[in-house]
Amino acid sequence: MRLKLILYCVAFMSFLTIAGQACFGGNEERTENKKMKYILTELEYPVDALEPWIDSETVAIHHGKHQAAYVANLNKALESEPNFKFDGSVEALISGLDKVPENIRTAVRNNGGGVWNHTFYWRGLSPEKSEPSPELMAAIKESFGSFEELKKQMNAAAVGRFGSGWAWLGVSPDGKLKICSTPNQDAPIMGEAVSACNMIPILTIDVWEHAYYLKYQNRRPEYAECIWNIVNWKRVSERYQFAVDKKKVLL
Length: 251
Ligand code: MN3
Hints:
By secondary structure, the chain is mainly α. It has helices spanning 2-24, 56-79, 90-95, 102-123, 134-144, 147-160, 192-195, 213-216, 220-227, 233-246, and strands at residues 29-32, 35-38, 165-171, 177-183, 200-206. The strands form two sheets. Strands 4-3-5 form a three-stranded antiparallel sheet, with helices on both faces.
């Protein structure tokens, strides 16, 4: 009897997990008691997996404190405006900032961007070596001339961003690969009017100091260069194909 009960519970919890992922396209968020509450996405690898390029202390603090704070502050902003009944993904939320009430719009932009950008960043990295797909490599050569030139331009965007922000590689409406950078927690998925980037992103580098300061101190160029050792090309290639075929971003 007791075993049966346990089995029912396990089955029910599995259903909830699958239903949640189906609704929100990932593990970024869940509804609890019908009230929207976003939760921190787990990393796909242990905090020390990106060593020696990104040290475990940086990953632990960056994910467990910084990104977690964006999640908490996003929830706080949404709770402060109970008349705004939104129950979609963070991606949908920040893709339509004009629908967010004005009094919480900046908080949603900053913290929603902080939540989504970090998940996108972590999922674009991996300790496992991979290569760009033949299709992506062809696009890189067509758009930049060479892989080295892509790296050079992306690093320049990362280093050239004054203050805090992000460097992005993405697919522009003409199908070509483009590089862009955004300040603060702005993201290309917020739209061109907000982010000044017109692209579907496929890779990002976080250039806030908290992303690299413990190991690299002021040496942002060295951090940007090191990122290329841990890019998850398997996923970036999937994102590229998704952007080309479906004209949508893939987390
Ligand atoms: Mn960050």
